[in-house]
C-alpha cells in the first residue's frame, strides 16, 4: 500500500470506474457509472481474434457472457480495491453461494474445517449437509476461543472459519490471534465479514486469507438484490477463481450494476446506521424489559474489547434479550412493532425486527430471555424508539 493511498470514501467513489469500461474513444467521452452490459454471445472480428481472447490468464477481456462483462468486472474490481491485501474477488449469486464457493474451492474429502459456533445458520446447514456427504468434517468451536484454536488444529484441519461478530448473538472473535495460530499450523483462515464489511474490519489486513461478503446486505444496501463475493490473495485466490470459473459462477449485470451503485454510498450509510443503532441501543439498554444488549459497541457484548481494539466502527445490526419474557411474549412484542419491518435479511435502508432462537452445539447458549434482533435503518431514531416504546407498552397491557 503506498503512502498516498486515498481514504476509503474516496476509493468507494472511484473504484471500478476504469476509463475503458465507462466510455470509448470513438464516442469522445465517458459516463460516470460503468453501464449494464448484457451479454451471452460475444462477437469477434476474426477467428484469430477469437482465439486470442481466450480468458485463461486474461480474465478482463470479452470472451463469453459467463466470464463477465465490464459491469461485473467493475464490481469485482471495486470490491478488491476496498479489501486491502486482496488480489481479486469472485462474485456469486448470493451470500450463501459465496460461502459454498469458498469452502468447496478450498476443501477436499478427508479435510476438517473448524467452524465458529455462532455462524450464520445456513452455513451450518451446508457444513452438516453437503460438506459432510463429501467427506469434509466440521468441528464447531467457541467464538471466545482466541489463540486457543491452536489446540484444536489437527493433521486434517485445512481451514478455520470465523464470523465476527457472530450471527444472532454478536460475539466478537479474536480474529488476528486465530489467523496467526491457523497460519502457524498451515491452515487457512476464512471469514464471513458481512456485518463489518472491509470498511469497519479489513479482514485480510488482520490476517485472514479469504473474506466473504453477503453483498445482499450492506453493499447493495437497498434490499433489492441477492449477491455474494469472496476476496482473497495468494494460492487461495488462484484456487477460488479457478473453482468459480469451473462451476460457472455468474451474476446478472443488472444486479452487479445495482451492487456497484450501492457501494458508492456504503461509507455514509454505514456511519448513519452506526449512529442510529447506537442511539436506539442506548435507549434499549436503560429499559427494564431488556436483559442483555448484544451490540459489539457495548460492554455487555461478549468480545466488546476486541471490537474496540480491531474495528473502526459498528454497523446497524444487533440483538437484545427480553428479560424473563416468554417466547410468546417476545413474538407479541415483535408483532406490535409497526415501523420496523418483519422479514429476513438486513443491511437495507429500512429497519427490521426479528425474533431469533440461536442454535449452538459447541457451548450452551444461556440467555436471560428470548432474543430479538434489530436492524436499524436510516429513519429518524426517535421514530424507531417511539415504535419500540409502544410495543413494550402493549406487552404490559396484555
Ligand atoms: C445474510 C447472510 C448471509 C447470506 O447471504 P444471502 O445473500 O442471503 O445468501 C451470509 N452471512 C451472513 C452473516 C448473513 O447475514
Describe the structure.
This protein has 398 residues and is an alpha/beta fold. The protein folds into 2 domains: 8-264, Type I PLP-dependent aspartate aminotransferase-like (Major domain) (Aspartate Aminotransferase, domain 2, 3-Layer(aba) Sandwich); 266-397, Aspartate Aminotransferase, domain 1, CATH 3.90.1150. Helices cover 37% and strands 16% of the residues. The protein has helices spanning 8-14, 19-22, 47-52, 70-82, 95-106, 121-133, 175-184, 197-200, 234-246, 253-263, 266-285, 304-310, 327-336, 381-397; strands at 23-24, 29-30, 88-92, 112-116, 137-141, 157-163, 188-192, 210-214, 228-232, 290-294, 317-322, 341-342, 352-356, 371-375. The strands form 3 sheets. Strands 3-9-8-7-6-4-5 form a 7-stranded mixed beta sheet, with helices on both faces. Helix 5 runs parallel beside helix 6 (121-133) and helix 5 (95-106) crosses helix 9 (234-246). The chain is globular and about 75 Å long. The site of pyridoxal-5'-phosphate has 14 residues, from helix 5.
